[in-house]
Amino acid sequence: MFQPLCKISIEIYPGYTNFVSTVGGHIPPFTNWDNAATNIQAAIEANIPGGVVLVADGVYADGGAAVAGGPTNRIAITNALKVHSVNGPAFTTIAGGGPCGEAAVRCAYVTTGARLSGFTLTSGHTWTTGDTERAQSGGGAWCEAGATVENCLFHDNEANLWGGGIRNGTVLNSSFWNNSALNGGGASGAMLHQCILSNNTATGEGGGVSGGSLENVLVVDNQ
């Protein structure tokens, strides 16, 4: 006797949008403004590759996650997500914590295929010990190859070694000022397009930039 065949339907979701607001209800999985997460990291962890995290105006200085034995990141985008603000960097801030050392908090970690758009990143710091790349570099942001940062402002971040503002990644239409590091006060190892770097400082080499590439970039008044 033959059993009837079962028909199975599989639907593949490319990701979905969840929401972040300083006045949200913080009810997972944060799929509307009323239930929005109150810190960005919670919304990132509730999403899936291909999804979007939409962030309302405000200063985000809570939450965080460590990656690969490095310092805490205020946000750690470990999947191929797009994290972007509603109204841009003038209204939306990701704040790390300092000074450099064991208690430091970097602003952002961005993995391959992820995109961070429309934020001010400030007060990010690194460890002074540990892995020279992931632990001691990229005060504002540390990026994997294939990560993208766009329309962001980086100021008053510090790295113990490389990239006070950012280490690695592709950076579009962003500005860096008053960041510092041993090498590459503003940026190190990043591919910069249509960016401005001013008043950044390195005690070693590259007050504005160390390594990487520049296309249509203004570098002025760095030390």
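That was protein one. Protein two is written in the same sequence-then-structure order:
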Amino acid sequence: KNIKLDEIEFYPVSGNLQTAERMFRANEVDTIETLVITKVPVYKRDNPSVLRLEPFVGTYFYRINVTRPPLDDPRVRLALAMSVDKESICNEVLFGAFTPAVALTPPGIGGYTAEAGISYDLAKAKALLTEAGFPEGKGMRDIEILYNESEDHQLVAEALQDMWKKGLGINVTTNKQEWKVYLNSMTSLNYDVVRAGWIADFLDPMNYCECFTTNNGNNRTGWSNATYDELEKKARNEIDPKQRFAYMQEAEKLLLSQTPIIPIYTYRQRYLISPELQGCDGNLLGYMNYKYMSVTRNKP
């Protein structure tokens, strides 16, 4: 008795964000789930009432293949991470659509916010690289960034390429692959550095902590640490909430110090909604609750 819609039509064009945005402008659809990144400033300026930028429990990061020298050296990995200016990426490259991330878990998930973090510190990054035997990048082999087809991913990859070249003196190439090939390359550890992301399945930091245990299918870095595995196990079996979080804090601190990943930003949903569509409220997991929606068509 509370349902107002008779039907919902879905158009499978999510792989082509430009097409989806054009359909919205042509009033062919009432909402699109992802707005092409370059259009964010346009809608902010010209039509802010239809633009939604809302919190989303997901982290965009880069995996590092720790089985490949010199990336097997934690000092090299941390140098790469600390030379990434995430504020610049989020605000200048990605048009203010996302929030810089210093840790793997999004802040506030399930009441948990990571105490550890990797912040931008180019001087420390240079010192670490020198300590590892590559002053100003000398003697360091070329590093390849792998990413799948998407304008967002290309913009970030090119930003890191520039930062690592100018900041550390490291030559970096980029490699764009089709989705299935990209997944296979990542799973088989056929990469140096690869773009990645994790969106929570449920609102609890354990959903992030478990990903980087040894042999976890979502690890895909070659990194393994017995202490981390034990901390994750303790957190999983702990019933006291405070102690449970303490174990995960310790685990995340260890993960970031070993740096098999480079956090880049916390996701935000960016989508468009027609003024004719009501009841379309976002939530942290990004699910649309269709039973509350209704449409009021404005007559021409």
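The two ends are 30 Å apart (CA to CA). Keep this in mind for the problem set.
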